[in-house]
Design goal:
Shape: elongated
CATH architecture of the largest domain: Orthogonal Bundle
Number of domains: 2
Strand order of the largest sheet: 2-1-3-4
CATH superfamily of the largest domain: N-terminal domain of the delta subunit of the F1F0-ATP synthase
Structural class: alpha+beta
Order of helices and strands: HHHHHHEHEEEH
Length: 182
Amino acid sequence: MKDTHVAKRYAHALFNVALKKGTVDIISSEIYQLKSFYDKDKRFIGFLAAPQVLTEHKIAMVRTLFTTRLSPSLVSFLLLLIEKGRVDHLGEIAREFEKLVEDHKGLIKARVTTAVHVEDDYKIRLREKLMSITNKNIEILHRIDKNILGGIIVQLNYNVIDRSVRNQLNTLKHDLMSLKVY
């Protein structure tokens, strides 16, 4: 994992620029798309981070690819990352930027995992319950994982509520294995 101090510093700088220009939502959307591209194809960042490639070539490539696709602030930010040799931190910067946007909007993304599809009314009740606990606006990101067998896992920032059948079975197994039988 990269040094988060560097990522936080650059994310704060980008966030402050976006806030001053009133483009937080635009930059957030664009950096998410850029991060998705980065996650799918590491060769692009590898090229931009490669010391054997001249900085002028990297800058020319970014300008060619992104000048018409990204806002000028984000293009300038990418060029700054290239010049400072920090482009390999882009993924972590994007995550830190997303956290700043969520905090600014009073939003928390709850990652909810179930073994089966759940109805929308269940998600609404869960969202309302989480909002009453946190006093923040909650966005539910639902995924299905049959390996949990049943129940639910909710990840809310750094807190995990694991009420899955798999976790309960593992706890029971641990408790039974720790029993001393005479």
